[in-house]
Specification:
2 domains; globular
């Protein structure tokens, strides 16, 4: 039986809006209520589905959408963007397996030796390494790898007093590096996928900003935290001798697997970049590419793949599935249309500089106090429903805001939270308010540069 979706009353819409607000507040208080985000969103998904079905907001049978497209019930199954799920699972497995080769540790130690133990050079090298790792891997993995190596390196070089500055700057740069490619962060995947932005288009558009913002962040960080070059000649010589004792081959168990991982990483990035123009592959999409490369590298371990499957962030995967369900229910309940009207006020006609800046700033502020993933998903859905063209800078307002807003507070992104965790692990003092005081100059500078950049490209 075919059914048509009917609009609901204003009271019901506001009721579901309150439910959505409660979910966002619960996510913001995730640490205080001691519940994983998948559990939080899952509970709200179950509750919203039940209430929506009770009120007959979600039809059953087949739903005919404008244009004659038919959705088969239950609608919440088709509401899940399985390509996004495939990209996350595939990329996570690929990174985890290639990391086991020692490739990323080798790269990091080589850079440490190249710096000669000079603190300022080390800051620049580690900063650029953070950006690259955040783009190729993911923000959290990049922060764990670089942060751990930073603590060891500065400890051996007797520069532990600079550790707080290094870790904070690296944490902030993970969100800058997260802007570099389509697969660098989850908001990029969601918004880019909805807007139809290819990997190559994303990189070309984002890379100039990332380069300028990285340089500006490192310059400001060196000044604020007083990180300068080594003093006299003897200090430089001692530091150089110390870093030469680091062995980049310690973490490499198999030279063959190391070379295999390096080659596969290059091919993986190249294939992702060329997906939109490669016959057959362009139809299968990024999810197919990510899963295919995951299986290829997993062949190296054959019967020993269980540890890699167990290492997948299932909390994140289930969070996404439940989130897509929530968004689908909110669409049926008229909540997205309500929020869309508010976004429409911010956007104006969609072509004005004021609308562009307002959407970027609003995205930044909301991303700083709650999870940027549901925010990105909702805004992407709203922009798509309003028929915003894929080449519009409004999509980039959401992308920049969702990523950079995470640098305002320690709960704004998972990578800054990891940075704070590493800081506390090494008995360094940094409170919630202390983080904001130290990070705010960087965040304001980065967001200001993003505003200028988007206005220039408008």
């Amino acid at each position: 039986m075919e059914q048509v979706i009917h609009p609901c009353s204003q009271g019901v819409t506001w009721g579901f809006s309150a439910l959505l607000a409660a979910m966002i507040l619960s996510l913001a208080l995730e640490e205080k209520i001691h519940a994983k985000k998948s559990i939080i969103v899952g509970m709200f998904a179950i509750l919203s589905l039940f209430i929506a079905s009770l009120l007959h907001l979600i039809p059953f049978g087949d739903v005919v959408l404008p244009g004659g497209h038919t959705l088969h019930m239950p609608v919440y199954i088709e509401a899940v963007d399985w390509e996004v799920i495939a990209i996350i699972i595939g990329s996570s497995l690929f990174v985890d397996v290639t990391s086991r080769s020692g490739l990323f540790s080798w790269f990091a130690i080589r850079l440490t030796k190249l710096s000669g133990g000079d603190p300022l050079k080390l800051l620049w090298y580690y900063g650029m390494m953070t950006v690259v790792f955040s783009a190729v891997l993911n923000n959290v993995t990049a922060m764990i790898i670089v942060g751990s190596l930073t603590a060891v390196s500065l400890g051996k070089l007797n520069h532990r007093n600079k550790l707080l500055g290094f870790l904070l700057i690296e944490g902030l740069l993970t969100n800058v590096g997260g802007l570099l490619t389509l697969i660098s962060s989850v908001p990029n995947i969601i918004v880019g996928n909805t807007a139809g932005i290819s990997f190559t288009q994303f990189f070309i558009r984002a890379s100039p900003y990332v380069a300028v913002s990285t340089i500006a962040t490192l310059l400001l960080g060196a000044k604020i935290f007083a990180i300068g070059s080594s003093g006299n000649v003897q200090e430089k010589r001692d530091a150089a001798e110390l870093v030469q004792s680091f062995d980049e081959y310690d973490s490499i168990e198999s030279r063959g697997f190391f070379l295999f991982a390096a080659v596969m990483l290059v091919i993986f990035i190249g294939t992702i970049a060329a997906t939109s123009i490669t016959p057959v592959i362009q139809d299968l999409g990024l999810g197919f590419v990510a899963m295919s490369f995951a299986i290829i590298v997993l062949l190296r371990f054959k019967h020993e793949v269980d540890p890699f499957y167990q290492a997948i962030d299932w909390d994140l995967i289930l969070f996404f599935i439940f989130l897509f369900v929530i968004i689908n229910v909110m669409e049926h309940a008229g909540v997205l249309e309500l929020i869309g009207r508010g976004v429409g006020v911010l956007m104006g006609d969609g072509n004005s500089a004021g609308g562009l800046v307002s959407l970027l700033l609003a995205s930044s502020v909301f991303s700083s106090v709650t999870d940027n993933i549901p925010l990105s998903a909702m805004l992407a859905k709203i922009l798509s429903a309003r028929g915003v063209a894929g080449d519009s800078s409004l999509w980039w307002s959401v992308i920049f805001g969702a990523n950079l807003g995470g640098n305002i507070t320690p709960i704004g992104s998972a990578s800054t939270l990891v940075a704070v965790t590493i800081i506390h692990k090494h008995k360094l003092t940094l409170s919630f308010t202390g983080f904001i005081k130290k990070a705010l100059p960087f965040a304001l500078m980065q967001i200001g540069l993003a505003v200028l950049y988007l206005l220039l490209l408008r």
